[in-house]
Amino acid sequence: MSFITYLKDGISLGAVYAIIALGYTMVYGIAKMLNFAHGDVIMVGAYVALMMLTKTGAPPIAAVLVSMAACTLLGITIEMVAYRPLRKASSSLAVLITAIGVSYLLQNLALLIFGAGGKTFVNVVSFPSVSLADGQLNISGTTIVTILVSVIIMVSLTLFVNKTKPGHAMLAVSEDRDAAQLMGVNVNATISLTFAIGSGLAAVAGVLLCSAYPIVSPYTGAMPGIKAFTAAVFGGIGSIPGAMLGGILLGVIEVLGKAYISTQVADAIVFGVLIVVLLVKPSGLFGKNIQEKV
Amino acid sequence: MNQNNQSAEIIKKIQSSTRRGNLITYGIVLAAYIVMQSLVSTGHISSLLKGLLVPVCVYVIAAVSLNLVVGISGELSLGHAGFMCVGAYASSFFTNAYGDGLPNWFRLILAIIVGAAAAGLFGILIGVPVLRLKGDYLAIVTLAFGEIIKNLINVLYAGVDSNGIHISTKSAMDLNMGPDGKQIIKGALGISGTPRLSTFTAGVVLIIITLFIVQNLMNSRAGRAIMSTRDNRIAAESIGIPVTKYKLLAFAVSAALAGAAGVLYSHNLASLSTAKFDYNTSILVLVFVVLGGIGNIRGSIIAAVILTVLPEMLRGLSAYRMLIYAVILIAMMLFNWAPAAISWRERMMERLPFGRKKRTGEED
């Protein structure tokens, strides 16, 4: 395996992280909360898609759409039941702990329904692989689709936020929630929409992640969730291009670290780079540095 | 002059009420200890619950120490398990390498000193860069450090022979030990064969010491400085309080106490591995702190006890137990923190004939 091959694998993994991180970063930017259950929504998305494929024999594209719809609904429900009542709580930690509770809940529901063992995932991508440089570099269809999808998502999210009315409402709410409300923005609806988009993206990420690493278990989403959160912070939390770049860099560092240094300390390397970046640039690569005023 | 007298009196009043609050906390711990100990000695306790006594102490200490960072210093730390891990490994290494033949209680004390010192040292090393960051960035970096510590200890091999300590990150072979060498840390396999020195009594003594340190720190000049940096960093800085120094103090003390909790944990099990110290454990300890009330030491203790015992009590429900645990956790958080739930509770309290009229202030 050459360096280019590792790089390609890293970008592919990083693209999945980027999709998850986009969801994280939008929810954080607008609802100002760390949604620890985001990783578990990925897992739910993967299970729903798998059930659609194996139990009903639906075509892959339909499975992905159903999975996205299910996760969107799940995201909105979680926000309404568990997070909305705590939005004005005296400490922002309260909603963080509730998110952890939701994460436990989703994991244990999956554990009850599907059992602890991993299930083999069916690859949903039927895209031909491409061979470059006389067969030296073989790019699988999954990799191509993953990278394409992540780029499409990033571009359309950027357009959505900057060009449409609901997108502007999101920007306004993330800037100053109370002022936005005074200007007639429906804050609750905007936050619901954000959760819907983030959770829908999580479903896509779940399907792509499990297409590349074809095992799905109740804990599938936990570590990618943490990594994607790291990626979002890495790129500057709240920033869409930041999440994209952070995700890709994280994936590349992880794969290269595994290949050239040690598989056991790859995670340590990823987190080490994050720490160095944050120490040099405390608000991430693309983060806005807001000066505190009295 | 009159004003001075008045404010001095108010301070005295506050001090005496905090002193009373502290004494109540000690009293609760001691009473719980006496009750449990007499239940154990008369045999009125299931072996399951008996096995939980030391872990409960571990989590209580961890929760109280994390409350020092989260509640008193106002920083969200998600890497507390990393410090427990350092304390556990350092002390187990020490106990296995040295101290054969000494009395058990003395070995445990030495282990606690070594573990707490090692974790405190890591707390300072990590605290210096980390405390420059704020809010969620600080949280993610503490999480990152916790994972890094776990990862690095997973590839650590260490042993001891007559020449001293040998350390390697590759394999047991690379230790190059003499014929009398004894391999202690075996990479991902961790440490096995640590003597089980932890007892419930030792755990309770350690809880009391932890309470003593944390509560005295809170009521000292340093503690008030730490709280002032939490409440308004800029104002504190402007009146000349060295913010970073005090935050570092709280962070290091908290890390050392978490290390002591780790010592208690590792000396309660025959084998030790890093799997038990991942971010889930850090988050679990944070759950204790937030559920018990941020900054409320007594609340941390109660939450840690309930949430450690609860999953075991639900064991009869087998597969549903963690599900129910999750639902209870969410419900308790909503009930405790949601503004709507709080005002509903107050209305209910007023309606009850024996209820309190309205809460006038924090008790602790």
Q: What tags apply to this protein structure?
A:
heterodimer, A: 294 residues, mainly alpha, ABC transporter involved in vitamin B12 uptake, BtuC, two-stranded antiparallel sheet, two-stranded antiparallel ribbon, 11 helices, 4 strands, 71% helix, globular, B: 364 residues, three-stranded antiparallel sheet, 5 strands, 5% strand, disordered C terminus
The global form of chain A is: globular
Q: Compute the number of strand runs of chain A.
A: 4
**CATH top-level class of chain A:** Mainly Alpha
- Rounded to an integer, what's the Rg of chain A over CA atoms? 19 Å
Strand content of chain A: under 5%
Give the termini distance of chain B in whole angstroms. Answer: 30 Å
Question: Which regions of chain A are unreliable across 5 or more consecutive residues at pLDDT < 50?
Answer: none
Low-confidence stretches of chain B: 358-364
Q: Give the count of helical stretches of chain A.
A: 11
Strand tally of chain B, please? 5
Identify the CATH architecture of chain A. Answer: Orthogonal Bundle
Q: For the largest interface in this structure, which chains are involved and how many residues does each contribute?
A: A-B, 46 and 48 residues
pLDDT averaged residue by residue of chain B: 84
Trace the largest sheet of chain A across and list its strands.
Answer: 1-4
**Major β-sheet profile of chain A:** 2 strands, antiparallel
Helix and strand succession of chain A? HHHHEEEHHHHEHHH
Quickly count the domains of chain B: 1
In helices, the fraction of residues of chain B equals 55-70%
Which structural class do the helices and strands of chain B define? mainly alpha
